[in-house]
Design a protein that fits this description.
The complex is a heterodimer. Chain A contains eleven helices and two strands. Chain A is mainly alpha-helical. Chain A has a single domain, classed as ABC transporter involved in vitamin B12 uptake, BtuC (Orthogonal Bundle). Chain A starts with a helix and ends in a 14-residue tail after the last helix. The C terminus of chain A is likely disordered. In chain B, helix 2 packs parallel to helix 12, helix 3 runs parallel beside helix 4 and helix 8 crosses helix 9. In chain B, 46% of the residues lie in helices and 17% in strands. Chain B folds into two domains: 222 residues, Rossmann fold, CATH 3.40.50.2300; 152 residues, 3-Layer(aba) Sandwich (Rossmann fold). The chains are: A mainly alpha, B alpha/beta. At the A-B interface, helix 1 and helix 10 of A face helix 8, helix 9 and helix 10 of B.
Chain lengths: 294, 396
């Protein structure tokens, strides 16, 4: 039975991980916590819903297009609504605090926009994954395999992009020090938009992957966001490998906790883990590595 | 200048007051955040508008003030207070959700406004013994009786229970567990309450799969029910394990969202889409054509029955509808509803009330129907397994 639980925990953990990756990416680039990030998970899921159910596109193309649409939406939101604040810096500055409040406000606005378009009820992304794979006594639904393949591919592509391309190098330079990046001739505002686009695109993928399992609805974003935040903190805020590790740990820990302690208090386990990690290592598990952000 | 302004204000207030006189004011608070929820509200508005168009009730028009409580207790209580003390309504209808209706019972008892409930099933609502409360739907105490008997006689005693943290789901499931324990001496093989807004039930389901029960019962609102059913197949619980659900499984989004996973699921409700009575067929086609709803669930029929019962009671009440007589009119309406006996409408059984403020008198319908999904998806199909009229004191 433990293998079943690990499969479930690993699959949901991967979703937390890719959402946490986006949160950490924004934090590492801008020193801000983006509280509207869950709404990009939700919008991505709705984009996937429209693409699969209404446009009849297949699942992988829908994931890709939802990522692009949500990425563009993220760029738009950053350029139009956040730019005045992001250009003034993040962290413990007035603009940084303003950005947090702005994120809350944006979350409410996006939820209401989604409510007006799609209503409050849940929708199923109609993907026929076929019968689950049976490996011994373990049932492995193909939706979990999709989560695994897409998440791992995205993580690998993101790693390659950040470490082996000029744009990735520019993002890392902006993350390290915006002023010096300016002096080096990097288009910092463009890089900030790129960071937002990438992060929101990742969030959208999380939404489309979880959509066929948990359904798509207006309030789905914040439910995933709180776990993804926990994952980002457990792994070390701003650390991309930490976000992945944190996501997997939160997913597996909460599933095992629900299974062997009490299923009625499932949300507690993620935060117990968070507290335990912070007590032992306040910077998060890979927080030391976050010194060289992104 | 100031004096004339004061006169104008007083004249305005008096004019507003006289505009109220002669009309019956009804406040309705409902969960109108889903497509079906909005349609229930729409139907209520349409039906009262139709009553007004046909001359009103004893010549009085009905003014319906419809508010959305989003199934949130704080909003429902705020709506009820507004109705009772600002709008000075004669009657309050609401709410859809038990967790909202329960606190409203205290508001209406204190304000002495009659309250008639369209959808909430939690048995505690009438156990508060308020003289001002009437329930059109079936109480969870009756549901647990019919479901437990079916499970014990036809399915088996190894049952796993999972329920959401809303008041209706908790009362329905905990009541069922207690009933199985008291009557059949059976303990649950698994029992868990999920967290509020939980969307991932797989950790419960993997544990249940290992226990290999005869049946799984899930209590919750429609979307969690659909999620639970789909995820039960994902983790590999075979179709041979019977799936049962709370009365919210009657709501059309369940088969639409759950698709094939809903096939074979049984639940108890107050009305079935497949009811072959002519009145039910007529109602189904009316709702389908007017509101574009494919599956007519029991929340539609209960809202409709409620309107008819209110119409009968208001017709029988001796109302002055003067502002000074508000308390007397409210009492007259309460007594008129209490006098409704043997109302035969769309509900699975006759609806009767009486004067005592007890559950025996205020739980109007005591005939649950056992229903099973035969097909899922948009064009779902259901079949009736059984229809049982419970003894009036059952479950008390």
């Amino acid at each position: 039975m433990i293998v079943d639980f690990l499969v479930v925990g690993f699959s949901i953990g991967l979703v937390y991980a890719i959402v946490a990756l986006g949160i950490s990416l924004i934090y590492s680039g801008l020193d801000i916590v983006h509280f509207a990030h869950g709404e990009f998970v939700m919008f991505g899921a709705f984009f996937g819903l429209v693409l699969v159910n209404d446009s009849g596109l297949n699942y992988p193309i829908s994931i890709f297009l939802a990522m692009i649409f949500a990425g563009l939406m993220g760029v738009f939101v950053e350029r139009v609504f956040y730019r005045r604040l992001t250009s003034k810096g993040g962290g413990y500055t007035v603009a940084g605090m303003g950005m947090i409040i702005c994120g809350f406000g944006m979350a409410i606005i996006l939820q209401n926009v989604a409510f007006l378009i799609w209503g409050a009820e849940g929708h199923a992304i109609q993907v026929d994954f076929g019968t689950p794979l049976k490996i011994g006594t373990v049932n492995l639904p193909k939706s979990y395999l999709w989560i695994l393949c897409v998440s791992v591919t995205l993580m690998a592509v993101l790693h390659f992009f950040l470490k082996h391309t000029k744009a990735g190098l520019a993002i890392r330079a902006v993350a390290a020090n915006k002023d010096i990046a300016y002096l080096m001739g990097i288009n910092v505002p463009l890089m900030i938009s790129l960071i937002f686009g990438l992060a929101c695109g990742l969030a959208a993928v999380g939404g489309v992957l979880i959509g066929p399992i948990n359904y798509v609805q207006v309030e789905m974003g914040y439910l995933i966001l709180i776990k993804a935040f926990a994952a980002a903190v457990v792994g070390g805020f701003g650390s991309l490998p930490g976000a992945i590790l944190g996501g997997l740990m939160v997913g597996i820990f909460e599933t095992l906790g629900a299974a062997y302690i009490s299923g009625s208090h499932k949300d507690i386990y993620a935060f117990l883990l968070l507290i335990a990690v912070l007590v032992i290592k306040p910077t998060g598990l890979l927080g030391q590595l976050a010194k060289s952000k992104a | 200048m100031k004096k004339s302004l004061n006169c104008l204000v007083i004249a305005g207030v008096l004019a507003a007051g006289s505009a109220w006189a002669g009309e019956i004011r009804i406040g309705a608070t409902m969960r109108m955040i889903s497509e079906n929820g909005q349609k229930y509200g729409e139907m209520m508005q349409d039906e009262f508008a139709a009553i007004n168009e046909s001359g009103g009730i004893n010549g009085h028009t009905v003014k319906l003030i419809l508010l959305n409580d989003e199934c949130k207790s704080d909003k429902g209580v705020a709506n009820a207070n507004k109705f009772a003390y600002q709008d000075n309504v004669h009657l309050i209808i609401g709410s859809t959700c038990s967790s909202v209706s329960l606190p409203i019972v205290d508001v209406t008892a204190q304000a002495e406004v009659p309250q008639i409930i369209p959808h909430s099933t939690n048995d505690q609502i009438t156990r508060k013994n308020s003289a001002w409360v009437f329930r059109v739907p079936i109480s969870s105490r009756y549901y647990k009786g019919v479901v437990s008997k079916y499970l014990h006689d036809k399915v088996g005693d190894q049952i796993a229970y999972v329920y959401a943290s809303d008041a209706a789901a908790m009362s329905e499931t905990q009541g069922l567990i207690q009933q199985m324990r008291d009557v059949y001496g059976v303990e649950p093989v698994y029992e868990a309450q999920t967290q509020e807004k939980e969307i991932d039930f797989r950790s419960h389901l993997v544990t249940i799969k290992d226990l290999n029960p005869d049946a799984i019962f899930f209590g919750g609102l429609q979307e969690p029910i659909a999620r639970f059913l789909v995820q039960s197949y994902e983790v590999g619980i075979p179709a041979s394990v019977v799936r049962a659900a709370g009365s919210a499984a009657s709501n059309a989004p369940v088969p639409k969202l759950a698709g094939d996973a809903v096939k074979g699921v049984f639940f108890s409700a107050a009305y079935s889409d497949s009811d072959d009575r002519p009145i039910a067929q007529l109602f189904n086609s009316y709702v389908r054509s007017r509101y574009g709803i494919k599956g007519v669930d029991h929340d539609f029929s209960q809202a409709y029955d409620l309107i008819r019962i209110v119409e009968i009671a208001l017709g029988n009440a001796d109302l002055s509808l003067e502002d000074d007589d508000l308390a007397a009119d409210r009492t007259a309406i309460r007594d008129a509803i209490a006098n409704v006996q043997g109302y035969e409408g769309l509900a699975s059984g006759p609806i009767s009330f009486c004067a005592d403020p007890t559950p025996e008198c205020r739980d109007g319908n005591r005939t649950p129907v056992l229903i099973q999904y035969l097909e899922g998806g948009e064009d779902f199909k259901v079949g009736i397994l059984d229809r049982v009229t419970m003894p009036v004191e059952f479950g008390l």
